[in-house]
Amino acid sequence: xxxxxxxKTKKDLKTAIANGKIVSVFSAGPFPxxxxxxxxxxxxxxxxxxxxxxxxxxxxxxxxxxx
Length: 67
Description:
The structure is a single chain. By secondary structure, the chain is mainly beta. It has one helix at about 10-20, and strands at about 1-5, 25, 35-45, 50-60, 60-65. The protein has one domain.
C-alpha cells in the first residue's frame, strides 16, 4: 500500500498527520485497500526505491496515526 501524497520520508508522513493534513491510502496492485483498520505502507512510490515503511491506522480511508 502507498499513501497519497507521495512522501519522501516517514518523518514527512508523521509531520503531515500531526499537522492535520489529509493523507489517503491506496493500493497499486490487485489487493484492495482497507477503508478502516490497520495496514502497512511504503514509500516513496515506484519507480523510486522504497526507503521507508510504516504501520498506519485508517479511518474512512484516511490515515489517522503512524507507527
